[in-house]
Amino acid sequence: MQNDRLYEAVFHRRSVRRYDMHPLPQDVLDGVLAAAHAATPLDPSIRTEFVLRHAGHVLDPLAGRAPHYLCLFSEGRDGYLLNAGFLLQQVDLHLSASGLGACWLGLAQPGRAHAEEEQRSGLRFVVMLSFGRPAGPSRREGPSEFDRKPLSAFAVAASFAAAGVPEPEALLEPVRLAPSATNSQPVRVSAVREAGVTVLVLGRGRLNPVKEAFLGRMNRIDAGIGLCCLALSLGHRGIPHAIGILPERDEAEAAPPAAPAMHPMARIALGKETPC
Question: Which of 81, 113, 134 is the last residue before a domain boundary?
Answer without folding.
Answer: 134
